[in-house]
Design a protein that fits this description.
The protein is 48% helix and 6% strand. With 172 residues, it is mainly alpha-helical. It has one domain.
């Protein structure tokens, strides 16, 4: 005889009690201008979510040693007592990865981060005549830190790469 356990009132009660989770209400409105610079638009959404996740997280996923500095790698931690234990740097690695993501998205939210690596001044009338750039914009580049800008961009790109790699681990 086959019994349908769902017909028992106590089962249905407990099933509803423990499986009850109210549906999350999500409404998204996308305007045409939201996709003009979608990376910038999404950064304003992702940044506060990452910050909240870091502040309220209850665990940490497994991470690759190659994604963190040498001092945070599992090989730099004291030997574990049992093979199934996490090493002393397990949670530190996840914090570092979250910090890199947060930093990258924070920079993306800044419209002027590149301004930290360039300085312009108003071009003189003579300089405007000599160069198309100065005549077009009326500004002359007086200082730039290309190396610093490239290092900054590389760190941002790494934060976005980590976001993609650990996307399915962004849970609390």
């Amino acid at each position: 005889m086959k019994v349908n356990i769902g017909t028992y009132p106590t089962y249905r009660f407990w099933h509803r009690w423990f499986d009850y989770s109210p549906q999350q209400s999500i409404k998204v409105k996308i305007d045409k201008w939201d996709t003009w610079s979608m990376d910038h638009t999404l950064a304003h959404i992702v940044l506060p979510m990452l910050a909240q996740l870091k502040a309220t997280k209850h665990g940490a996923p497994c991470t690759d040693d190659k994604d963190v500095p040498k001092e945070l790698r599992s090989t730099s931690a004291p030997t574990k007592k049992n093979s199934w234990d996490t090493d002393d740097n397990h949670f530190k690695r996840w914090d570092w990865i979250l910090d890199e993501m947060i930093w990258a998205f924070n920079q993306k939210c800044r419209d002027d981060w590149e301004g930290d690596f360039y300085e312009y001044k108003d071009a003189t009338p003579e300089e405007k005549e000599k160069s198309d750039t100065e005549s077009l914009f009326g500004l002359k580049l007086v200082w730039e830190d290309r190396k610093g800008r490239n290092a900054h961009q590389k760190r941002m790109s790494n934060g976005f790469k980590l976001f993609g790699k650990y996307y399915e681990n962004l849970w609390d």
